[in-house]
Specification:
It contains eight helices and seven strands. The protein is of the alpha/beta class and 211 residues long.
Length: 211
């Protein structure tokens, strides 16, 4: 059976995973690996949201990126048939109008800070967010903690600043890395971006099983 070894690990709790409803925002270097992990674990009711098409420069880190020029969520729907694809630009306006109520967990794998702040205001009680995975080389430096306890990550620092400026006074967990950036450019290494996605999946599983 496809999920036999997952069932060995989680036992009766496996049913919680198969009945979970997940919203995954962003399907790039972090989000695509998160989706693959969710799907292989038996969490197949996943709504994926992204606006972009694949570019050749995505091929170092994104699942599905061999399909250059095609819409990401449409390609991923072919690879993971039970997902629900939404082609949408994830900005503040979209987040404020979208209904997050049906989902058990919201996974944030987007880069836009304004959108991330809006997301925190909208659903921090069931949000797990990814911060800066680019420009780094060592996945073992990755950490998981409250957004307010994240450190050493320039992107997370900007995120905290924008949250404070917006009056946000709640909490939610983030995946982050205090590793010093290796370059000022937009360099990326799949060992890190993929690990961020796998960690998002792992923490989503943990969140579901605690419910």
């Amino acid at each position: 059976m496809r999920y036999e070894r997952v069932k060995m690990l989680f036992g009766e709790d496996f049913e919680k995973l198969t009945s979970a409803k997940i919203l995954l925002l962003g399907t790039g270097g972090v989000g695509s690996f998160c989706l693959d992990c969710l799907y292989r674990t038996g969490i197949t009711d996943v709504t994926i949201v992204d606006f972009d098409r694949y570019e050749i420069s995505n091929q170092n880190r994104q699942i599905g990126s061999e399909h250059v020029g095609e819409i990401k969520v449409e390609v991923l729907k072919r690879l993971y048939p039970t997902v629900t694809p939404l082609k949408a630009k994830i900005d503040k306006e979209w987040i404020e109008s979208f209904d997050f109520d049906p989902y058990h967990v919201v996974l944030d794998a987007i880069d836009d800070l304004k959108a991330k702040v809006a997301l925190a205001h909208k659903c921090s009680h069931k949000l797990i967010s990814s911060t800066g995975s680019a420009r780094k080389c060592d996945p073992t430096k990755m950490a998981y903690d409250s957004i307010w306890k994240s450190f050493g990550d320039p992107f997370a620092k900007k995120f905290r600043y924008e949250l404070k400026k917006s009056g946000f006074d709640k909490d939610f967990p983030v995946i982050f890395s205090p590793e010093e950036p290796r370059t000022p450019k937009k360099g990326s290494f799949v060992a890190v971006t993929g690990s961020f996605g796998l960690a998002l999946c792992s923490k989503a599983v943990e969140f579901i099983l605690k419910k």
